[in-house]
Amino acid sequence: GRWCRGLWALPPRAATAAASPSPPTGGSPGSGALNPFDRRLKRKQKNWAALQAEPAKCDYLREEVGGRIADRVFDITRTFPLALDVGSGRGYIAQHLTKETVGKLVQVDIAENALKNATESEIPTVRVVADEEFLPFKEDTFDLVVSSLSLHWVNDLPKAFREIHHVLKPDGVFVGAMFGGDTLYELRCSLQLAELEREGGFSPHVSPFTAVADLGHLLSRAGFNTLTVDTDEIQVNYPGLFEVMEDLQGMGESNCSWNRKPLLHRETMLAAAAIYQEMYGNSDGSVPATFQIYYMIGWKYHESQAKPAQRGSATVSFGDLAKIEGLLKKGKK
Known about the structure:
Helices cover 35% and strands 20% of the residues. By secondary structure, the protein is α/β, with parallel strands linked by helices. The protein has one domain: Rossmann fold.
């Protein structure tokens, strides 16, 4: 539509990204130290998941977290004429938002099939295939940026946060959610123990996740202020390890680390399933899978925002405050 013509950034930095939804990641497993994830493979996995006969069957986690992001947006008592959803997938946040809160929405994802199969929303929406690390929009464009459960696959998270900060208007807000470090610890431990037992060593089968202690620091370095970071856990029960892995594949959440092991032996998988059941199994025979979620809210600076008072500007000393407290205690008696 006409309203999105002025969004696009002209610098080469973003123009390249707009042309190529999956920019170079170093190209080979040898570059994994700086680029731990194969972004082309992640795009392929997400595209495959979006084309399944019932893509919504494995969307329960994304829909739940999308709803919790929308709740945080509703808690901010203002309207947002133009919003951006980074790593939108099939629109898990948009379906919970209302046109009274968000006027227009741009959805960005690396997987074109996810965008083509997006759920309908009452908000006027434009869908753009682009990478989260290379947002092809002008500076100071959006009143609100949201992102749910996609940034844990980004190779350069500090750069992704800087890109989000760049496209936000001053006094704009970013509301996001990421998987945290304890996500799928049951699966990770079971696979590692089974490999040690059967093969004498183990490879990473679950993606590395950001620690919550680092998250606030990364957002602050990207330029965000008035930060809020909190954590939550969602536990889902499955019949067994194989069902956990099947649903992860259906979510497009299969591992795409360069150093992943291409195949797991059948005996190792059966051993891992038995260890999972033995160590973590519920009394009804099911097994739990824990998903730790980090929620973050950060604002782009604007001079109208409240500022902390200058050092030394206090008009009451701590000594006087102590006296007041003593008088209050006497008054209560």
